[in-house]
Give the backbone structure.
Amino acid sequence: MMKKILILGSTGSIGVNTLEIVRAFPDKFEIIGLTANSNIHLLKKQMEEFHPKTIVIADKKKSEELKKTIGNSCEVLSGNEGLLEIAKRNNYDILVSALVGFVGLAPTIEAIKLKKRIALANKETLVTAGELVIDLCKKHKTELIPVDSEHSAIFQCLNGENPSEISKIILTASGGPFLNKSKEEFENVTVEDALNHPNWKMGSKITIDSASMMNKGLEVIEAHWLFGLPKDKIEVIIHPQSIIHSMVEFRDGSVKAQLSTPDMKLPIIYALSFPERFNFNAVATDLKKINQLTFFEPDFDKFTCLKMAYDVIETGGTSSCILNAANEVAVEKFLSGKIKFNRIPDLIEDALNAVSIIHSPDLETIFDCDFKTRDYLKHKFN
Ligand code: MG
């Protein structure tokens, strides 16, 4: 049966890769809706190829601009209201949640309530509202399938296993572009240095998060909620080749790993086809060419963002929401040249100390916390 797909964030790296999968399986998938932040040029091309019923452009000016060029061929919505509206419609089977940042949370919740399969690439959904989102998925019996490569690897390793027999999960990390830089050298790294990731081609926010290892920190929090494990059962190891995407160790000492050439199309196709696997040969993995796989322990003293992420699991409540919002602000300030790279963890720590933490938050409290954190940091720059 044809599956109808709504992609939130279709012009980003996950969105573009998802459309490659859809293009490869025209008899299995159909695009119902696409959304973009401001890249109307690419969105228009995607629209002409995949014929969605509705598109959303978050930037209102750009949506007006696009409307003029496409006439009545497709419904055009705009803003965060548009994202909510498209997610609330009952005309799709799978939501690919691939927006960048906190803005992805609200529409993903709408899709969960409609019991749609969620192919989750937006980390912030679980980082900021993990408890609430997991409870909602249980209540509505919604399938939440991770697209993040590490979580997809763990999800695949757990297929057919009993979760109570896990002794720990091992999240692999490439270590990013600054793996071999000293903490002192962090002071002078440039935006270009930080955007130069050795293995993965991704958007700028996640690439900076990889350089600071906050990306891995957010993934630890995500894994904590997704697999229901305490922080001491989640280990991070550096694996510079990014061939093993993550592992699970079971109570009998056996370790399962999932391996492939690093390419996001593989976790995406799994999230769309699960529990089946489709014929797909676009990504080859030749271990003979890779030659060696290496592993070592992360330096928590150098990568303080990773340590802070473990800490907020312990603190609980809205602390992970504060961490996330402060990180989003800090990354933006770094990208626009307003702060140095080594100031990113300082700003996050500052916000964690200043904004009050509320336990068992409802959605409104989470939105409020996100707003307060951004507001607090904004005043620091005025
Ligand atoms: Mg990842």
